[in-house]
Amino acid sequence: QVQLVESGGGLVQPGGSLRLSCTASGSIFEIYDMAWYRQAPGKQRELVATLRRGGTITYAGSGEGRFTISRDNAENTMYLQMNNLKPEDTAVYYCHPRGVASDWGQGTQVTVAS
Fold first, then answer.
1. Which helix (H) or strand (E) holds 4?
2. pLDDT, tens digit only, all 114 positions of the chain
3. Residues 6 or more apart in contact with residue 34 via CB below 8 angstroms
4. Cβ neighbourhood burial of 55 (10 Å; 0-12, 13-18, 19+)
5. For the chain, how far is it from start to end, CA to CA, in angstroms?
6. Which DSSP string do the residues of 21-90 spell out, in sequence order?
7. Which positions ≥6 away from 63 have C-beta within 8 Å?
8. How many Å apart are CA 19 and CA 106, to the nearest integer?
9. Does the CA dihedral 70-71-72-73 come out positive or negative?
10. Burial group, residue 80, by CB count within 10 angstroms (0-12, 13-18, 19+)
11. Cα gap 109→73, rounded to integer Å
């Protein structure tokens, strides 16, 4: 089973930026549609952005216009560039293949606070 490791989270002030990384143990980005998800305290996990294996990108929710999803197939890494962060973006962020019933990683904590 491919392992996914998220990193790049941290504490940032409102209006700040972070770039999250998702590193896979194998070459999966050309096989699966991949996505970033997030889960805020007390809330259900929600979809943030999708990068399909063919390259199509879609954003869900309030991240559109502020977040950019990308990938580096050679490095087996997917990114989420997040700009103009807001307190409501505070959550644990995960990467995961769309529609695949596999284990989730540990995620990376993003906290937006002044």
1. strand 4-7
2. 778 999 999 999 999 999 999 999 988 888 999 999 999 999 999 999 999 999 999 999 888 999 999 999 999 999 999 999 999 999 999 999 998 888 899 999 999 999
3. 22, 28, 50, 51, 52, 53, 71, 78, 95, 96, 97, 98
4. exposed
5. 40
6. EEEESS--TTTS-EEEEEE-TTS--EEEEEE-TTS-EEE-GGGTTTEEEEEEGGGTEEEEEE-S--GGG-
7. 48, 49, 82, 89
8. 17
9. negative
10. buried
11. 24
Residue length, the chain? 114
Amino acid identity of residue 15, one-letter, is G
**Any idea which residue has 């596999």 for tokens?**
102
Structure tokens given for 34? 């991949």
